[in-house]
Structures are given as structure tokens and as C-alpha cells.
Write a structure and sequence with these properties.
alpha+beta; 2 domains; 268 residues; 4-PPantetheinyl_Trfase_dom_sf; binds coenzyme A; transferase
């Protein structure tokens, strides 16, 4: 088994409570190969196969397939359950939930190159988690940011305005991933007022940042880290602040699609 996948499994086995970010690079998945695509999609339940096949573009189809396989992989390892025994439910606005385990919480997000999973095994059943991955390439120019001014509080707007054009895009993406990870945490998705998720003034995340906020009565911790070498995509996680000392950087395991598929095939 490949080293990184094995180190993720070892990590889950050596700790009772743990959290990790798993990522797959969709562009490097090899899914443009029709044979691999066919082989991989058969690892999904039929309703999920249908979800993948009805997404709009070829790229979206590959992303949706990576997303669902990563979900099965992560939930199976975390709950020590075979993929066929996993059962899911979803929240009112579509937040996916693992029904077959109370201790495993997860959240998924698709970016411009990576699909990511935030996976937590916690003894606290009230734990909630959210994740978002956002990319600088989602924004074409700093001017485009003005179109989104309605989603920012005045403190946030002031923070973005103070940046030069280059860091303005990075700051916008950073705020966006913070806000969206919070909507994934609560499970409303975009059915909420983004402006009311007020992060206030923040410093631009350079490599990694961790901030604690009180939002709508929820005490939450956000962690953000850029994941590509060119600092193009930022992953932000959001979880309940249950203790004061969880500012430690969450490990990211960037797995290869091939290793994940091999692992899942060998389970069947
Ligand atoms: C959730 C939402 C914010 C995702 O936005 P996005 O930028 O396209 O998506 P991301 O790539 O970051 O995340 C997508 C993943 O988030 C998860 N997700 C979907 N809805 C979610 C929710 N309400 N809360 C948390 N996570 C959710 C899913 O795993 C989804 O992956 P999938 O589409 O492959 O199943 C947005 O689609 C939304 O607001 N959805 C609400 C949908 C809705 O109103 N549904 C009606 C009732 S079901």
C-alpha cells in the first residue's frame, strides 16, 4: 500500500480522537481514461452513480466521482466499517451525515483542482464540522470582487480594500472559504445570509492560520491552509470550539486516486 495512504491509516489507529484533511487531485486522477472511470464508478452505490453521471460537464463528473469515492474511503477507514455497511443520511439542506457511526463527522468540498474531505473522529457526539476549498482562479480580477460587496460586513470590506490588487484576491478567497466552511458546519449551505457570518478584521493567511470566533452563539475554530505549491487553493475547516488548545495544524493527506481505488477494490 502506498506510503501516504498507509500513514493516514496508521494515524487513525494510533489515536482515539483525531482529525485529518484528505485531498485528491482530480486533474491527476487519470479519470480521463474511460476504462478507469468505468471501473471506479462501479465502486459507488447505484444512486451515487446516477448523481455522478447527471452532473453537467466531464470535469464535474470526474470531480463528483472523486468526491464520492473519497467520502466512502474516509468514512470506511474512520469507522472501521466496510464500504457496503456504511449508511448515510442528510440534513435539511443536504449536509451529508454518516448515520452508521456517531463518532465520525465529515464534510466535503470541491475545488478547481482538488476535492477535499475534513474528517473527524471525536468522542463528543455534538461535534460538527465544515470544510471549504476555494481557489484564486475563481476570481478573474480584483474588480470582480466589488460584485460581492453585499456579502461582507464593513470591517471585512475595510480589510479587503486595504490590500493591493494581488493580495486582494487572496484575501477575498480567504474570507470566502471561512464563510462557506461555516455554512457547511451549520449545514445551511448558501441558504443563509453570508454577511451575517461576520469574521471581522483578519490578517491575510500566509501559509496557515487559525482563528476563533463567536458566530450566532456558536463558538467555532477555523483553520486555513494553502495547499498547492503556488498557493492557489485554500482549505478552511470549521469546528466547534470545545477546548482552548486545538490551534494545532490539522494534517493534510494528499492521496493519489490510484492508491485510494486500489484500497477500495481490495476491500471488496
Ligand atoms: C452546500 C453548498 C454551499 C455547496 O456549494 P459549492 O461551492 O457548490 O460546493 P462545495 O464544492 O464546497 O461542496 C459540495 C459538497 O458539500 C456537501 N454539501 C451539500 N450540501 C451541504 C450542506 N447543506 N451543508 C454542508 N455540506 C453540504 C456535499 O458533500 C457536496 O458534495 P456533492 O455535491 O458532490 O454531494 C451549496 O450547494 C448549497 O447551498 N446547497 C444547498 C442546497 C439546497 O438548498 N438544497 C435543498 C435541500 S436538499
Amino acid at each position: 500500500m502506498a506510503d501516504l495512504l498507509q500513514s493516514f491509516i496508521d494515524y487513525t489507529e494510533s489515536n482515539q480522537s483525531w482529525e485529518a484533511i484528505l485531498a485528491i487531485n482530480v486533474n491527476e486522477s487519470g479519470l480521463h481514461d474511460e476504462f478507469l472511470f468505468e471501473k471506479a464508478i462501479r465502486l459507488l452505490p447505484l444512486t451515487w452513480q446516477n448523481h455522478v453521471l447527471t452532473t453537467r460537464s466531464l470535469y464535474d463528473r470526474r470531480t463528483a466521482l472523486c468526491n464520492r469515492l473519497l467520502q466512502i474511503f474516509g468514512c470506511s477507514v474512520a469507522s472501521k466499517t466496510s464500504p457496503k455497511s456504511l449508511t448515510y443520511t442528510c440534513g435539511r439542506y443536504g449536509k451529508p451525515i454518516l448515520a452508521s457511526s456517531d463518532s465520525v463527522k465529515f464534510s466535503m468540498s470541491n475545488g478547481s483542482t482538488h476535492t477535499v474531505m475534513y474528517l473527524v473522529n471525536s468522542l463528543n457526539n455534538n461535534m460538527e464540522v465544515g470544510v471549504d476549498i476555494a481557489s484564486k482562479t475563481d476570481i478573474k480580477s480584483a474588480d470582480e470582487i466589488n460584485l460581492f460587496e453585499d456579502i461582507f460586513s464593513s470591517a471585512e470590506q475595510a480589510c479587503i480594500s486595504r490590500c493591493d490588487d494581488r493580495s486582494k484576491i487572496a484575501m477575498f478567497i480567504y474570507y470566502w472559504s471561512l464563510k462557506e466552511s461555516y455554512t457547511k458546519f451549520t449545514g445551511t449551505g448558501l441558504n443563509c445570509e453570508l454577511k451575517a457570518i461576520d469574521l471581522g478584521a483578519i490578517n491575510l493567511c500566509q501559509d496557515f492560520s487559525s482563528i476563533k470566533r463567536q458566530i450566532h452563539g456558536n463558538s467555532v475554530i477555523f483553520q486555513s491552509q494553502w495547499i498547492n505549491d503556488d498557493l492557489n487553493e485554500i482549505v478552511t475547516t470549521c469546528q466547534n470550539s470545545l477546548k482552548d488548545d486545538c490551534f494545532e495544524r490539522t494534517c493534510i493527506f494528499i492521496l493519489t486516486f490510484k492508491d485510494m481505488i486500489n484500497y477500495l477494490e481490495n476491500l471488496d
